[in-house]
Amino acid sequence: MTPFTQLTGIAAPLPITNIDTDMIIPKQYLKTIARTGLGKGLFSEMRYKEDGSENPDFVLNKPAYRKAQILVAEDNFGCGSSREHAPWALLDYGIRCVISTSFADIFYNNCFKNGILPIVVSPENLAKLMDDAERGANATLSVDLTNQTIQGPDGGTVHFEIDPFRKHCLLEGLDDIGLTMVKANEISRFEAETAKSRPWA
Fold it and tell me: Rounded to whole angstroms, how far apart are CA atoms 26 and 137?
């Protein structure tokens, strides 16, 4: 998993409440178990018209936001079904951070397991960050996980809280498999000792 330390990038505004996982990646894209290639389906029902052409009114189709790496969204982001394809699609598109006032629990947990930083802020701070994100080509935010800050284009700073263990995992790039491999030497030693003491096992 790619570590997350600092990120300075374009922030796209999504002033929508209750963005569910079916909106993030519709069900027709769930046939694959590959983590790559899902970016094309991200928000597809909003990004594309019925004929497959781009919807010019959707934020990620606007020139200033095509390379957005941060999303600023309203309350309850990631609700709905527990599909892990949702963070996969975000990551494949290039989104590394989502900022909201609240997240659905399963989506929130899945983000950390895939190298995406979900940040919870107060409604007041979300309003400030949404305003920053609506500045088009100037909608740049700087996220510093080490210091737990978000800096806006005018220099204003928002502090955020995060669980220390989850912070450690993101900084080190450790998913569930990575956490296990950190203990690889201890696991090998245990298995060797077990084989000696219980040769019949």
Answer: 29
6-14 and 140-144 strand pairing: antiparallel
Is the CB of residue 42 less than 8 Å from the CB of residue 28?
A: no
* Type of residue at 123: P
Q: Please name the amino acid found at residue 5.
A: T
Domains along the sequence of the chain with CATH = 6-197 (3.20.19.10)
* Alpha carbon distance 12, 6 (integer Å): 18
CA distance 15 to 198: 61
- The answer for 60, left when phi > 0, alpha when psi is -120 to 50, beta otherwise, is alpha
Q: Partners of 158 in the beta sheet?
A: 150
Q: pTM higher than 0.85, yes or no? A: yes
- Which tens digit of pLDDT belongs to each residue from 2-56? 999 999 999 999 999 999 999 999 999 988 877 789 999 999 999 999 999 999 9
Q: Kindly list the strands in the beta sheet with 140-144, ordered across the sheet, starting from the edge strand earlier in the chain.
A: 117-120, 97-100, 70-73, 6-14, 140-144, 149-151, 157-159
Q: In sequence order, what are the beta bridge partners of 99?
A: 72, 119
What are the residue ranges of helices labelled H in the chain? 21-24, 44-47, 85-93, 105-113, 123-133, 164-172, 176-182, 184-197
Contact 19, 81 (CB under 8 A): no
